[in-house]
Amino acid sequence: MAPFTAPTAVTTLLLDIEGTTSPITFVKDVLFPYVKDNVKGYLSKHWKEQPCQEDVAELRKQADADSLLSGFVPIPCTSECNIDLDAVIQAVVDNVHWQMSHDRKTTALKQLQGHIWKSAYATGQMKGKVYEDVVPAIQKWREAGIKVYIYSSGSIEAQKLLFGYSTEGDLLTLFDGHFDTTIGHKGESESYINIAKSIGCSSENILFLTDVTKEAKAAEEAGVHVAVVLRPGNIAVTDDEKLRYSLITSFSMSWVASMYH
Ligand SMILES: CSCCC(=O)C(=O)COP(=O)(O)O
Ligand SMILES: [Mg+2]
């Protein structure tokens, strides 16, 4: 594998979470099962509260947009005659389970997931897993004057929970900001242009690290520099992609040092 060197124009790092700062197994084996197991209880407990009603309204809009997809689960309105609350809650649960079975990255699903995780983090039942090379590298980047942002399909609220209640402690001061799908989806190049505008820099000043080559391609089309992250358990990268992209296996200190000396 060719050693990675970042272009000198880079002043800003944009980091993906799942497969980049954090293991895919943490998301798939801890975070997602927690939602599947607790969504019904969460909805029943918080149904009358405004944030829960807003989440359900967004899920219902998404369900309407998904109506042509195979297996989709409609969410009836509580005002519809002959439909009791339990049936509506069950429809929301079924819709969430269906979306999760396809690993959908809809904003509606991601907002609700963040709200469900909140109490698990706050009570210490769950801690955000971060690879051990991540914190020292970010500290080094920041000392070198590099800005560090997160861009994940997980909602900004969920990102802040993961890093705020992490195995390495509260890491939120390490980041200059957070982006989620409300700025655009990660597979669309316009999202990266929106991010550059929001940060107030040119896209060529940004280096995006991600495990997903579709995201790397979209970012590159927007003029953003990219490197594909190979962590244990990440989705396999083809031989062609290995030749096409800069590859990194960790945020190791030697790699960080080589960036700015
Ligand atoms: C930050 S919340 C957990 C991650 C998540 O829900 C997700 O979909 C991960 O997507 P990413 O864009 O970080 O690969
Ligand atoms: Mg990822």
TrEMBL record:
<dbReference type="InterPro" id="IPR023943">
    <property type="entry name" value="Enolase-ppase_E1"/>
</dbReference>
<comment type="subunit">
    <text>Monomer.</text>
</comment>
<keyword id="KW-0378">Hydrolase</keyword>
<dbReference type="Pfam" id="PF00702">
    <property type="entry name" value="Hydrolase"/>
</dbReference>
<dbReference type="GO" id="GO:0019509">
    <property type="term" value="P:L-methionine salvage from methylthioadenosine"/>
</dbReference>
<dbReference type="InterPro" id="IPR006439">
    <property type="entry name" value="HAD-SF_hydro_IA"/>
</dbReference>
<keyword id="KW-0460">Magnesium</keyword>
<comment type="pathway">
    <text>Amino-acid biosynthesis; L-methionine biosynthesis via salvage pathway; L-methionine from S-methyl-5-thio-alpha-D-ribose 1-phosphate: step 3/6.</text>
</comment>
<comment type="function">
    <text>Bifunctional enzyme that catalyzes the enolization of 2,3-diketo-5-methylthiopentyl-1-phosphate (DK-MTP-1-P) into the intermediate 2-hydroxy-3-keto-5-methylthiopentenyl-1-phosphate (HK-MTPenyl-1-P), which is then dephosphorylated to form the acireductone 1,2-dihydroxy-3-keto-5-methylthiopentene (DHK-MTPene).</text>
</comment>
<feature type="binding site">
    <location>
        <position position="18"/>
    </location>
    <ligand>
        <name>Mg(2+)</name>
    </ligand>
</feature>
<dbReference type="GO" id="GO:0005737">
    <property type="term" value="C:cytoplasm"/>
</dbReference>
<feature type="binding site">
    <location>
        <position position="211"/>
    </location>
    <ligand>
        <name>Mg(2+)</name>
    </ligand>
</feature>
<keyword id="KW-0539">Nucleus</keyword>
<dbReference type="GO" id="GO:0005634">
    <property type="term" value="C:nucleus"/>
</dbReference>
<comment type="similarity">
    <text>Belongs to the HAD-like hydrolase superfamily. MasA/MtnC family.</text>
</comment>
<keyword id="KW-0486">Methionine biosynthesis</keyword>
<dbReference type="InterPro" id="IPR023214">
    <property type="entry name" value="HAD_sf"/>
</dbReference>
<keyword id="KW-0963">Cytoplasm</keyword>
<feature type="binding site">
    <location>
        <position position="186"/>
    </location>
    <ligand>
        <name>substrate</name>
    </ligand>
</feature>
<dbReference type="InterPro" id="IPR027511">
    <property type="entry name" value="ENOPH1_eukaryotes"/>
</dbReference>
<dbReference type="InterPro" id="IPR036412">
    <property type="entry name" value="HAD-like_sf"/>
</dbReference>
<keyword id="KW-0479">Metal-binding</keyword>
<feature type="binding site">
    <location>
        <position position="16"/>
    </location>
    <ligand>
        <name>Mg(2+)</name>
    </ligand>
</feature>
<feature type="binding site">
    <location>
        <begin position="152"/>
        <end position="153"/>
    </location>
    <ligand>
        <name>substrate</name>
    </ligand>
</feature>
<keyword id="KW-0028">Amino-acid biosynthesis</keyword>
<dbReference type="GO" id="GO:0043874">
    <property type="term" value="F:acireductone synthase activity"/>
</dbReference>
<protein>
    <recommendedName>
        <fullName>Enolase-phosphatase E1</fullName>
        <ecNumber>3.1.3.77</ecNumber>
    </recommendedName>
</protein>
<dbReference type="GO" id="GO:0000287">
    <property type="term" value="F:magnesium ion binding"/>
</dbReference>
<comment type="pathway">
    <text>Amino-acid biosynthesis; L-methionine biosynthesis via salvage pathway; L-methionine from S-methyl-5-thio-alpha-D-ribose 1-phosphate: step 4/6.</text>
</comment>
